[in-house]
Fold this protein.
Amino acid sequence: MSTQKKYRHIFFDLDNTLWDFNRNSVETLKELFSEWVAPRLNIGVESFIDVYEKINHQLWNKYRDGQISRQQVAIDRFTLTLKNFGIDDETLAALLSEAYIRRSPRKTRLVEGASEVLDQLKSRFHLHIITNGFLEVQIPKVEHSGLGEYFETITTSEECGCLKPCRKIFEFALGKAGAMPNESLMVGDDPEGDIKGATEAGMDAIFYNISGENNPLEALYCIRNLRELLPLLMS
Ligand SMILES: [Mg+2]
């Protein structure tokens, strides 16, 4: 990358870019299922997780659009999943919700190559995180997984009141970092939230294309593995 020397700050998305949300979440849901759901419901854990993930996704979209609160997302994703399987039990939903929020951020699986890449980048760049999520969940993820040592600032959507791709969250994060957009690079796995959002805020962006599907036009580069960042940024 001929322009590499202009970057001083690198901003990373957290979930599924560094912290392996998919695997950590499934691991948590499997525990909750076997402890509290399996005794009452004769279905496989995969069906439970499938339904939960679809409902969770829909609720996050409503939250992003300002239609529901974060508390509703946290509880309703379990209330509605249980209802889908014929269990109408607010108490159980509240218990699952509380246990999920307490346990999942303590999971420590990282995306392949994350520590190795951050170790090297840290010697040359100021590193930061911009994440859509709840403060009480995202901060423990960073701390428990050992990511904390790499990052100078962490910005969550909750503290600045809007979610990526909203321009305000990028401006908020740049301000917190003391960084200018033209010396900053965003790395993330969401073409809309991370790549389009960062680009609209005047930053360059690298798309971590884990699925190999659509490459956003705005991305400066698309990578399939985090390790590809090293030759691009360190050479
Ligand atoms: Mg992500």
Q: What stands out?
A: The radius of gyration is 19 Å.
